[in-house]
């Protein structure tokens, strides 16, 4: 489908060329779970472990990406003005979350095509949004990692005090409180981050990457 006069260009250096140079494949490890479930912590622990193994990875993190690429209206207003901020700034409504995930999916796909293991850490509460990202990539590129931590544990951790604010009604539409979280039905990996340490969970993911041939068994 082409709604403007834009043409797809094939690049001279292929994805396979890049993967051969790096000695591992590119892919997207899509961490999904409630706020405070451990997505960022596990993704960063894993990133560090992969770096030590000489594997090229990169973390795309919800809070950080929402400071730039997917900034909210308040952040865009000063530089771009009100109309722009209203049109392109993203909040937490269902449609804004959909656009957040669409953009991240596209960026993560570019990373994978460049031979990098992209680690994305977004709540991504809607199944349909995650499935759209999966379908836009070649089979095997999208690896869904469900960070399965019960809400009671997330709420006890509450590192940013957001659950407290949501319970007090100071934040509306907070995932798990008064906004939905749709659990993955068939994730490639399910991590019990209420029971195991981030190091143990990072090992589980590395074992998966080895067994699926994304990284070499000896790496
Ligand atoms: N209403 C509401 N619901 C959920 N989360 C909220 C909300 N408002 C702000 N925050 C903070 O934003 C972080 C989640 O951003 P994401 O981009 O991952 O969300 S989403 O995937 O678009 O649903 C999330 O960060 P994490 O705790 O790292 O998940 C929160 O700190
Ligand atoms: N597997 C784990 N075991 C114990 N605590 C964890 C674990 N993973 C994360 N935490 C702690 O839980 C809190 C929230 O983790 P974070 O990675 O910020 O979650 P998310 O990115 O899903 O919002 C942090 O204080 C972190 O230290």
TrEMBL record:
MF terms (GO), sorted A to Z: adenylylsulfate kinase activity; ATP binding; sulfate adenylyltransferase (ATP) activity
Any GO CC annotation of this UniProt entry: cytoplasm
Organism from which the protein derives: Thiocapsa roseopersicina
Protein task: Catalyzes the synthesis of activated sulfate.
Family: Belongs to the APS kinase family.
Pathway, per record: Sulfur metabolism; hydrogen sulfide biosynthesis; sulfite from sulfate: step 2/3
Reaction equations catalysed: adenosine 5'-phosphosulfate + ATP = 3'-phosphoadenylyl sulfate + ADP + H(+)
Keywords for the protein's UniProt record, in alphabetical order: ATP-binding, Kinase, Membrane, Nucleotide-binding, Phosphoprotein, Transferase, Transmembrane, Transmembrane helix
UniProt binding sites for ATP: 33-40
Active site per the UniProt annotation: 124
Protein name from the UniProt record: Adenylyl-sulfate kinase
PANTHER family tied to this protein: BIFUNCTIONAL SAT_APS KINASE-RELATED, SULFATE ADENYLYLTRANSFERASE
InterPro entries reported for this sequence: APS, APS_kinase_dom, P-loop_NTPase, Sulf_AdTrans/APS_kinase
Domain of life: Bacteria
NCBIfam families per UniProt: apsK, PRK03846.1
Domain APS kinase: 25-191
Bilayer-spanning residue ranges: 106-126
BP-aspect Gene Ontology terms: hydrogen sulfide biosynthetic process; sulfate assimilation via adenylyl sulfate reduction; sulfate assimilation, phosphoadenylyl sulfate reduction by phosphoadenylyl-sulfate reductase (thioredoxin)
Presence of the UniProt keyword Membrane in the record: yes
Enzyme Commission designation: 2.7.1.25
One matching Pfam family: APS_kinase
């Amino acid at each position: 489908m082409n709604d403007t006069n834009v043409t797809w260009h094939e690049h001279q250096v292929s994805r396979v060329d890049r993967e051969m140079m790096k000695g591992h494949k590119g892919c997207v490890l899509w961490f999904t779970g409630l706020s405070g479930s451990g997505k960022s912590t596990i993704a960063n622990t894993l990133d560090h472990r992969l770096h030590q193994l000489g594997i090229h990875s990169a973390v795309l993190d919800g809070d950080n990406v929402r400071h730039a690429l997917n900034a909210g209206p308040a952040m865009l207003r000063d530089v771009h003005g009100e109309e722009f901020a209203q049109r392109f700034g993203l909040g937490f409504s269902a449609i804004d979350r959909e656009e957040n995930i669409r953009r991240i999916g596209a960026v993560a796909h570019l990373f994978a095509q460049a031979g990098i293991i992209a680690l994305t850490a977004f709540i991504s509460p809607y199944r349909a949004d995650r499935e759209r990202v999966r379908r836009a990539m070649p089979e095997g590129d999208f690896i869904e990692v469900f960070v399965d931590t019960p809400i009671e544990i997330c709420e006890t951790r509450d590192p940013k005090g957001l659950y407290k604010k949501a319970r007090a009604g100071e934040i509306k539409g907070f995932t798990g409180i008064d906004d939905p979280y749709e659990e993955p039905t068939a994730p490639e990996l399910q991590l019990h981050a209420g029971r195991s340490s981030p190091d143990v969970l990072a090992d589980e993911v590395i074992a998966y990457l080895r067994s699926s041939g994304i990284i070499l068994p000896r790496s």
